[in-house]
Amino acid sequence: MKFMAKTRLSTESGVTLIETMIAAVILLVGVIAIMRLMAVSIGQNLSQGDVQTRVSEYCEDKMEQLMALSYSDVSSNTTVFPPTTTGGVGLTVGGSSSLASPVAGYSDYLDISGNLLSSSTGAYYQRAWSISQNVAGNLKTITVTVGITDSTLVAAPTTTLVCLMTKLH
Question: What's the pTM?
Answer without folding.
Answer: 0.73
